[in-house]
Design the sequence.
């Protein structure tokens, strides 16, 4: 026997300090009871863990996600192609919210969209349209769509159209405007609206013609290659944007469209490393939407934020959103800004983490830490940290730094509540006031309350 006392300490770290003070050694285990010791949640969890009905449902949902094959097919007018979108409806990111309660960037972006559509001639008139109820707002997710930051999509806007070749479900997203003063951060000045009109009349036709001639772009292989090239396909899309441009340029050049239009479109995309972000989001939604609606499944199929609330949807949760207050991100801020200037977390782009990329794939993108903070070793550790809360790995999306293992995917509500490990999201940070723009980036976590609500819902409906 050893004369040295060796202890594995589970619980208060002060217990380990006492052992060390007595000359022994102690290893601290970072453990806490499920759901912070909530007995009701603990009982609900115990009924769902190792439950055959839930396990079988999760296998079905996860297989649907894994087998999905999103294909970028074209560009359409939002009001014509998005399901159930009215001609006086504006879509926003995150879970449902009344227009009176939206945060500054979303409010500014809604006003901008009304002006872009020509429904009002000035901001006061646009405000009056909202007050009268003549213009309504609805979540992008309710119309098979996603949008970054404010997420604003109005009927006349061009949208990417993605189809899952295995399952047939379609998803949509708006086009990325670039950085600076843009609608997704609430800017609604004349130059912002002029850029949107140019995207509608010049950029969209060039892209649509190129896609038509290409026969569509399979997105999973492109995304897999981008992971090998240093993207995590949420906040770093430089490689993916370049790969998409490489596929489309030859077809655009053969389209017969005016050379100046083609050149302007290529120049715009080449100057915007975030251009692929929206496409990535629609691809992820296509993979997750096909997995939604499996009774009793505890697999998360959406995480989204509207700047006020953070919400998740679960495959076995029907149309229910499980929500909690959106956190304010404590990240790296641009010079002159701090956390006091930040809007709470915002945007549908957490659909990438829900699908196993973004923050879950940071190990593929050591350069991302210059944007969100930390070190390359932190990025690897964060990708590994997500493994215990997921149903498996997506071997179509592998990470060289993790010995080419697939990204952790299929967030399981049960595992989140059981381990206390919260899904990680790397995200841009918007100023709380409309139109200021992005003021930083960082790492945040989905709130535990979303997952405990979903767990209770699943438990209550298990035998329904």
Sequence:
């Amino acid at each position: 026997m050893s004369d040295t006392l060796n202890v594995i300490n589970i619980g208060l770290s002060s217990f380990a300090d006492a052992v060390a003070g007595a000359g022994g050694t102690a290893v601290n285990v970072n453990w806490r009871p499920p759901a912070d010791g909530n007995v009701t949640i603990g009982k609900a969890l115990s009924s769902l863990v190792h439950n055959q009905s839930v396990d079988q449902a999760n296998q079905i949902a996860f297989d649907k996600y894994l087998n999905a094959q999103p294909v970028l097919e074209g560009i359409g007018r939002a009001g014509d192609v998005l399901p159930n979108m009215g001609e006086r409806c504006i879509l926003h990111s995150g879970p449902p919210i009344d227009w009176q309660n939206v945060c500054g960037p979303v409010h500014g972006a809604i006003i901008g969209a009304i002006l872009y559509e020509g429904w009002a001639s000035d901001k006061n008139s646009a405000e009056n349209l909202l007050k009268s109820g003549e213009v309504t707002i609805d979540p992008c997710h309710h119309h098979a769509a996603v949008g970054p930051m404010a997420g604003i999509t109005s009927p006349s806007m061009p949208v990417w159209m993605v189809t899952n070749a295995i399952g047939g479900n379609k998803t949509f997203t708006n086009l990325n405007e670039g950085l600076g003063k843009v609608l997704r951060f609430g800017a609604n000045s004349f130059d912002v609206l002029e850029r949107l009109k140019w995207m509608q009349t010049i950029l969209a036709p060039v892209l649509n013609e190129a896609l038509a001639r290409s026969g569509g772009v399979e997105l999973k292989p492109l995304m897999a290659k981008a992971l090998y090239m240093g993207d995590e396909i949420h906040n770093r899309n430089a490689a993916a944007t370049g790969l998409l441009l490489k596929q489309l340029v030859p077809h655009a050049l053969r389209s017969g469209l005016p050379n100046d239009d083609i050149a302007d479109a290529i120049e715009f995309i080449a100057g915007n490393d975030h251009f692929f972000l929206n496409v990535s989001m629609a691809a992820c939604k296509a993979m997750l939407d096909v997995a939604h609606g499996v009774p009793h499944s505890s697999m998360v199929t959406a995480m989204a934020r509207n700047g006020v609330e953070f919400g998740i949807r679960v495959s076995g949760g029907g149309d229910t959103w499980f929500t909690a207050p959106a956190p304010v991100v404590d990240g790296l801020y641009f010079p002159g800004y701090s956390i006091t200037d930040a809007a709470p977390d915002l945007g549908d782009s957490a659909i990438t983490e829900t699908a196993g990329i973004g923050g879950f794939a940071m190990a593929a993108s050591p350069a991302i830490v210059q944007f969100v903070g930390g070190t390359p070793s932190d990025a690897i550790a964060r990708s590994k940290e997500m493994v215990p809360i997921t149903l498996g790995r997506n071997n179509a999306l592998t990470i060289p730094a993790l010995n080419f293992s697939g990204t952790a995917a299929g967030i399981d509500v049960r595992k989140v509540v059981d381990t206390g490990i919260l899904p990680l999201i790397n995200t841009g940070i918007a100023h709380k006031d409309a139109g200021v723009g992005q003021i930083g980036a960082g790492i945040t976590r989905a709130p535990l309350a979303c997952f405990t609500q979903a767990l209770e819902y699943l438990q209550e409906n298990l035998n329904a």
Notes: Residues 163 and 169 are 6 Å apart (CA to CA).
